[in-house]
Amino acid sequence: GGFTANTSLAHYCRDNGLLLHIHRAMHAVIDRQKNHGMHFRVLAKALRMSGGDHIHGGTVVGKLEGEREMT
């Protein structure tokens, strides 16, 4: 799973003339935790580097930014 699966799927897409769309689903598991989380920009870059063509990142306000009570 993880980035290895993403890379394998990216190779399949290239071989078959497809683009790989990456959705932000479950990003909060990785980037919401301030003590040990990863910023979404870093996550998006890693997903692009592992073969994603398009990142569904959402908006600059709302679910991805701010305190949980405000979003």
UniProtKB/TrEMBL annotation:
Transmembrane segments: none annotated. The keyword Acetylation does not apply. InterPro entries: RuBisCO, RuBisCO_lsu_C, RuBisCO_lsu_C_sf. Keywords: Chloroplast, Photosynthesis, Plastid. Residues 2-70 form the Ribulose bisphosphate carboxylase large subunit C-terminal domain. The keyword Zinc does not apply. GO terms for molecular function: magnesium ion binding; ribulose-bisphosphate carboxylase activity. It comes from the Eukaryota. One of its GO terms (biological process) is photosynthesis. It holds the Pfam family RuBisCO_large. This is Ribulose-1,5-bisphosphate carboxylase/oxygenase large subunit. The gene is rbcL.
